[in-house]
Structure formats: structure tokens, C-alpha cells
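Hey L., structure's done. Input below.
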Amino acid sequence: MTVDTQEQGDERVHWLPMIAAISSISVVGIAIGLGMPLLSVILETRGHSASMIGLNTAIAGLASIAGAPLATPLAMRFGVAWTMLMMIAAGALAFVGFHFAPDFWMWFPLRVVLHIALTVLFILSEFWISTSAPPHRRGLVLGIYATVLSLGFAAGPWLFAHLGSTGFLPFGVTIGLVTL
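Output:
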């Protein structure tokens, strides 16, 4: 594509970047949809109180608030695609870290890393969709994007119901999906 074409407005949907951005949002949906019940059940089976489980879960919201302002500087420094890949890797490592973290205090920094990564992914995937979709197709593309995010949210509890909360299996399947 030439600069002249861009200046006149390229009205085609570039599906490869769309698929990449939409795939990354599915990771966010699955991680939240599976992670919230999985981690709560694991903490409960380890004997932690509902208050402490709630406190650990609340860290996710605080991390999201803290992580949102990081999206733009990271994307400007490393590029959108590389930042998204870094966030997928950081989120995946944090998620699997819950399986291996024996002490409850370790779950707090893991929640911070996971939810900062998910927030940055969410922001950058929306940016990518908004800038890549031509105006006359933006509604269609955003509709697909929102549907995939919703399917990710739904797939998480479905996976939880089928995989359970014991052993490495729910973590391994999630890492496999994230990597894919």
C-alpha cells in the first residue's frame, strides 16, 4: 500500500491484524473467565478466609487501574505488537506462577503482574482494532471483537467446570490456549 492510498483512505478490512487483535482479546476473556473462579477455589481449599480471598482478588482491580496508564508508553517504546506479545508472556508466566507459589503472599504480586498484563492487552487490542478497521466496517469488526471477548469470558467457566481446580491441568490448558 502506498502513502497515496492511505491518504485517500483504504476502505478494505485488513483481516490479519484484526485476527491478531481479536485473538489477543480472547486470551483476556479466558484468563479472567477461568482465573477468577479457579484461583478463588484453590485459595479456599488451602484454607484461606473469604476476606483474604477477596483482598487478593481486589488486587486485580487495583492492578488494572495502575496498569492502564502503562499501555501507551510501552506501546510507544516497543510497538503495539511487541508490547502485546510481552504482556501475553508476562500474563502466562504469572498465571502458571499461581500453581507453583506455595505461600499466600506470593499470590499478590502474581495478581498484579497478571492483571496489569491483561489490562495492557485489552487497551492495545482495542486500539489496534479501532485504528485498523475502516470506518464503514468498524461496527462489524468491533462486534466480532466483543463476541470473541464474551466467548472468552464464557469459555473460562466452561473450562473450569471440565478441568477442575486440582493439579496442573487447568493451568497447562490455559497456557496452551494463550500460546496458541
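The chain is about 80% helix and 0% strand. Residues 1-8 have pLDDT under 50 and may be disordered.

-- N.
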